[in-house]
Design goal:
single chain; 345 residues; alpha+beta; 8-stranded mixed beta sheet; 16 strands; Oxoglu/Fe-dep_dioxygenase_dom; oxidoreductase; metal ion binding; IPNS-like_sf; iron
């Protein structure tokens, strides 16, 4: 595990490791067995210590990520009138798709103010050409597909394409994690995440925009995103160069998750921690204003895109080791309840 020293130079603090995913990159049909076990060990170590890690060489084309960021920025910098047309819950009835304005969500339990961010959610979003795993509902049967965003041509396609790549990567990361846990049933986790991209699974791609801060006074009692754990199984985060993300390690210390070009930041959520009886850690994290921010940084917005991989709607999360450390829980019920809490503060 990588370490950094504190300001006194005397205390070693685990930081977020960078792990090479070449052995099971998306451009490979099968894992490179000569390097696969090392990959398994490194990811297992990261998830049992700090709970976060960067993956490099995952096989998602740079242009796919770049395009998703570009269309997102065009949407978020549109007028409030345009964005309001696509508000989540109103744009498409009974759908999670759409825009979530500022001051709608507060993730920090002790925060005095709502998070300073906007977001746009898509779920489900797999392209018509996607090859589904067995028992997955065909794309043309999905009831809540969303139409094009007229004011941002190409937005739907760009976000759907990134979703599709993330779905494939998600299944491979789950496979690696299962190997690290040495489970008797190698499909114990994967068989409960077979319907990603359909109405039968709440996996979501969320593109986020943190507006510029024009004065120091705006930062009083304000964070860009309050401290929290994610709700589901596995999260991927793509972030721009602005910085501000911090991760709490097992010692309760906040560690900066500095943006690293060409990587995907990975962490797990509460349901995965319950599944593994606390073997894997759902680490708290938050987005702050960069320490000692210059006026240039304060006057700059921040962008990120998160893929929240979740179990299927019919999944009951029980401790895989049979310990009963946590009672069984319905995956969608748990996620819904946590999401409701974040909007009711």
């Amino acid at each position: 595990m990588a370490e950094v020293k504190d300001h006194s130079g005397s205390v070693a603090v685990p930081c977020v490791p960078v792990i090479d995913f070449t052995a099971y990159s998306l451009d490979k049909a099968e894992p490179d067995q000569s390097k696969f076990n090392l990959l398994v060990d490194k990811i297992h170590e990261a998830l049992t210590t700090i709970g976060f890690f960067y993956l490099e060489n995952v096989g998602i084309p740079d242009e796919v990520i770049k395009s998703a960021f570009e269309v997102s920025k065009r949407f978020f910098t549109s007028s409030n009138k345009i964005k309001a047309k696509y508000k989540s819950g109103e744009w498409i009835r009974d759908s999670f798709h759409g825009y979530v304005p500022l001051d709608m969500e507060g993730l920090g339990p002790d925060s005095k103010r709502k998070d300073l961010k906007e977001s746009f959610n898509i779920r489900p979003a797999i392209k018509e050409t996607e090859e589904f795993l067995p028992f997955v509902v065909p794309f043309d049967q999905i009831s809540n597909k969303f139409p094009e965003i007229a004011e941002v041509p190409g937005m739907k396609g760009a976000l759907c394409e990134l979703f599709s790549y993330c779905r494939k990567l998600h299944q491979r990361v789950l496979e690696v994690m299962t190997k690290g846990l040495q489970l008797k049933d190698p499909m114990a986790i994967l068989k409960n995440c077979q319907k990603i991209g359909t109405v039968n699974n709440p996996t979501t791609l969320r593109t986020l925009f943190y507006p510029a801060v024009e004065s120091e006074s705006e930062r009083i009692d304000q964070v860009r995103c309050g401290e929290h754990t994610d709700y589901g199984a596995v999260t991927f985060l793509f972030q721009d160069a602005s910085g501000g993300l911090e991760v709490q390690n097992v010692h309760g210390q906040w560690v900066t998750a500095t943006p690293i070009e060409g990587t995907v930041l990975v962490n797990i959520g509460d349901l995965m921690q319950r599944w593994t009886s606390d073997v894997y850690i759902a680490a708290k994290h938050r987005v702050t204003f960069p320490s000692g921010s210059s006026k240039t940084l304060l006057n700059s917005p921040r962008q990120s895109i998160a893929f929240f991989g979740n179990p299927d709607d019919d999944a009951i999360i029980e401790c895989l080791d049979g310990s009963g450390k946590y009672p069984p829980v319905s995956a969608p019920d748990y996620i819904y309840n946590r999401a409701t809490e974040s909007h009711s503060k």
